[in-house]
Amino acid sequence: MKRRISATPRRNRRLTLAAENIAMAFRAIRSNKLRSSLTIAIIALGITSLVGILTAVDSMDATLKDAYSRMGAGIINIRSLYSMPAGMHRIRNQREISRAQAERFTDYYRAPATVTIFTTVLSGTRAEAGQKRTNPTTDVIATDGNYMKHNMLELSSGRSLSAADVEGGRFYCVIGDNVARTLFEAQDDPVGQTVHISGRSYIVIGVTAPVGNNAGGSMDDNILVPYTNALANLAASTPDFTIGILPEPSVSSETAATEAEMTFRAVRRLAPFDDADFRITRSEAVIEELNSTMRTLTIAAIVIGLVTLTGATVGLMNIMLVSVRERTREIGTRKALGAASKRIRAQFLMESVIIGQTGGLIGIVAGILIGNIIAAVMQASFVIPWLWMLLAIALCMAVGILSGYIPAKRAAALDPIECLRYE
Fold first, then answer.
1. What distances in angstroms separate CA 124 from CA 135, 195, 340, one per listed residue?
2. Per-residue model confidence as pLDDT tens for the chain (423 residues)
3. DSSP state of 334
4. Could you give the C-alpha distances from 56 to 212, 296, 298, 369, 370, in angstroms and in order?
């Protein structure tokens, strides 16, 4: 019972001493506003660069991963190879993937999968409906009925292109959400309306659900047209098709990619000793490359932040040493009145930690704002980097302790008699 009674006053006394140290630390900071402000600014700059870059990286990473997860993990694309390798023995084909080659691939490919072919026939064009026009940012994609399934797209109204639409070369189109909002009133159903593209009239048969921006561009600003119709009426140059493959769950991505390469080599009439004159990309490889790039950016941001914080640590230590020298008489007076050395040491450590944490908090707020502004410019999602915020707080605490330890130890070791005689 006696221990409990004696523990409470001791605990209260410790809290009182801590509050006094904090109050004295703030008074000391206010009395040296210029030096303290410069040190806080240096620390805030380091934390801003660290948190800002990492916030932007996390935002872009989240957006791109969301896009690829929506697309599916096993997607395979076959594209033309624009730079021919120097060691190729012979070239049988033009660099573009033609319509005939794309169609032959869909006929010959045997692995269970959804296969689509598509090409952009108009890029950065306008679509019109009545008196309204889209911005010149609309892409017209010539494709077949499997494009939407391959890209995991959903409809908000109407239907998708069908095999009959492609076979008949019909003047039908599926428009993105932004195109629908721009050309038609909110209360009007775009399905059945007419859209004019490059002087041609197309009937809207479907509107895709909004998907936002992603790594491969946004369907919201695109228009899908049967490729048979688009090549006859809209294409201004030789089309370069992309072949998309979405394997069934029972087929591994490696097996599907191997089958795709063998099939398309046969379509392109390549001999076994010929180098491939096309390229196959897999979403897993793209995601891995993305992760590698993000890791590099994260390491770069951490290095930049640590270099800046190292300079801030040296600056803060110098300020605290100067503060010890300037307050020598104050330290001597407090010791003469009975202040213990550990209390003097705690006061200077507290002052250093408060400066570090103040700079850290300013840097965290500025870093989150700047990072998300950069992300907004790049049309990425808003994030709050809790992990990096905790890291920044821990770093600032370390900076404060490391910077204040030597000055605090020196202040605590001063002789009160010599301090009182110090001029």
1. 8, 16, 75
2. 444 545 566 565 566 656 766 776 677 677 777 777 777 887 788 788 778 877 877 777 777 666 655 555 578 888 887 644 444 444 555 678 889 999 999 999 988 888 999 999 998 899 998 888 988 889 999 999 999 888 888 899 999 999 999 999 999 999 999 999 989 876 678 899 999 998 899 999 999 988 865 444 578 889 999 999 999 998 777 888 999 888 887 888 788 888 888 998 888 888 888 888 888 887 665 666 666 777 777 787 777 777 777 777 777 777 777 766 666 666 667 666 666 677 777 777 777 788 878 888 888 888 888 877 877 776 666 777 777 778 778 877 877 777 777 776 776 676 666 655 555
3. H
4. 18, 13, 10, 10, 8
Specify the 3-state DSSP secondary structure of 201.
strand
pTM of structure: 0.58
